[in-house]
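Q: Could you fold this chain for me?
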Amino acid sequence: MWYSTTESVSAGCRKKRKKEHQKRRKPVMSIYSARMQNVQERLKAAGLGITVISDPISVGYLTGRRVAHVGERLMALAIPAEGKATLFVNRLFPIEPGETFEVVYHDDTEVATAGLAGYLPAGEVGIDRFLYAQFLMELMDQRPDIRPRVGSFAVEQTRMIKDAAEQEAMRKASLLNDEVIAKVPGMLREGMTELELADLLLAEYKKVGEAWAPLVGFGAGAAEPHHVNGETRLKKGELVLVDAGQATDGYFADMTRTFFFGSVTEEQRKVYEIVREANRRGRAAVRPGVRFCDIDAAARDYIASCGYGEYFTHRLGHSIGLGLHEEPSVSAANTQVVEQGMTFSIEPGIYLPGKFGVRIEDLVLVTADGCETLNHYPRDLQIIRPTFL
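A: Sure. Below is the predicted structure, expressed as C-alpha cells.
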C-alpha cells in the first residue's frame, strides 16, 4: 500500500501533540467530588476533623447515589476533613461505593453503631441534626472519648449555593407549579370542600412530580397560616388560599396564591394589595451582601406601617432546594448574608382571626445583582366567577 509522506508526518505530529495534551490535562472533578471537597474545606475552616451525616437527602447530594430512607435503622456518612468518606449502612440497603466514599455494611444481628464507633477518632465529632438520639447515645456509651458537636453546617452551607444544573432544575419545577396553580380558578365550585379542592390539586401535581397534600383554606380557614384542610364548604364572597408545590427531578417548587370567589370586600381588597406590595418589596430587597433579617424587614416594616404588623405572624420565608424547607431562614432573627446562587421563598401574609387571611408566596434565585423570581403565575387580584357543583 502506498502512503503519502506528508500525510504520515502530519498524522505523527498530531498523535504526538495529542499525547502531550493528555499528559498536561488535569482530570475533571465530578460535581460530587467538588461537593465533598467543599464540605471538607468547611470542616477544616471550622477546626473540625470529622462530621457524621445521616440525612438521606444530603447523603444522596454528596454521593450521587439514590438513597433510600432507612426508617429506624442506621445510615451515617462519616466525612473526614481529609480523605475518603465512609458510609455505614444496613445491608438491606445496598449502595455501590463511589469515587468519594467507601461503604461499610452491618446487619440486624449486629450493634448498628459498632462499625461507626470503631471508625471515629477521639475528640470533637460533628453530628448532624438528623441522627437519632438512640444512635448518638449508643456512640457515646461505646466511645466516651468523643465529644459530639453540631456538624450539619458544612453540608448545609454547601447545599445553600445551587450550581447551574440545580438552578435550571428549580426553574423547571417552578414553571410546572405555575401550570398547576393556573388550573385552580377552573376547579372552584360553590359548595366544594377544602379537602375536595386539595384532592383535585394533588392529582394534578402527581402528574409533574412528587407531591404532597396542598394547603387549602376557605374563608376563616385562610387566617390560619398552617391550616389543616377540612370539610369547610366554599361560599360566594369567600377567599381561597392555596399553598402548594411539588418536587420535580428531586428539586422542590413552592407557591401560595389567594383567590376571591364571586366578590371581594373593600377590607379584603385592601389587605390583599398590602400583602402584594410587601411581596414585591421583599423580592426587591434581595441581592448578594444583604442580610436575611433586612429582607424580612423590607416586607414586615411595610405591613406594620399599614397597621397590620401584629397580623403577620411568621418569618418571611425559607430556603428551598432538594428539601422543601432548608437553611438559611428568611427571618428577623437571621443576620446571615445572602449569597449568589441561594434560593428561598418570599411569602408575607396577613391573618385576621375568624375572618380571612392573605398570603402571596414566590421563590427567588439570588443573582449577581439582585434576584430572579422563579414563579410567573400572576399576583394580580383575581375574582373567580362562581359555578355550582
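A (continued): Residues 245 and 254 are 4 Å apart (CA to CA).
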